[in-house]
Structures are given as structure tokens and as C-alpha cells.
Amino acid sequence: MVLFFHGAADAGRKFKTTFICWTAITQLTHHGMLFVPIGYTFGAGMFKMDSIRGGSPYGAGVYAGDGTREPSEIELALAEHQGKYMASIVKRLAQA
């Protein structure tokens, strides 16, 4: 099983990062790996527009800016949610 965490220096590079993730998804699929996107399971946090942030239904992300920007609380919470979500999927598959 596979999930993605991605980072970009600015909003323009987010598109490129998303494209690279999509390219990677097809390669992983050819090897029989399962991609686990988070979709909209993060709830209302996914739709907050009060500040710039990384992340999408495909996975957690961060805007790095010029390298001095630290991940925001919402970006960190999304990454933690993604890890827990992946663990819950793995647990369910292991019990099957």
C-alpha cells in the first residue's frame, strides 16, 4: 500500500507535484501496489481557505516557500490524519 506526502515551493509547483504523483500512481499500479488517497475524510479542515496550505484529496502536502516556512498546524494535522487513515486501511486488510 502506498500514500503520498508532497511539498511545493509555491502554488504553481503544486500542479507539477500533483502531476508527478499521478505519474507515480500508474507506475505503482503496474507493480500491484494499492494507492490509498485520503479523499475528503479530513472533513471541514480540507475546505478551510483562511490561509495558504498544502494538501489535497490525493494526500497531505506542504507549501515550503523559500525554505523558511514551517508546516502549518493544518498541514501537520492533515499529515497525521493521513497516517492514521492509512493505518486503519492496513488494519482492515490484515483482518480480512
Automatic annotation (TrEMBL):
CC per GO annotation: membrane
Signal peptide: none
Record InterPro entries: Flavoprotein-like_sf
A GO molecular-function descriptor: NAD(P)H dehydrogenase (quinone) activity
Organism domain of life: Eukaryota
Family indicated by similarity: Belongs to the WrbA family.
Descriptive protein name: NAD(P)H dehydrogenase (quinone)
Source organism per UniProt: Coptis chinensis
Classification of source organism: Eukaryota, Viridiplantae, Streptophyta, Embryophyta, Tracheophyta
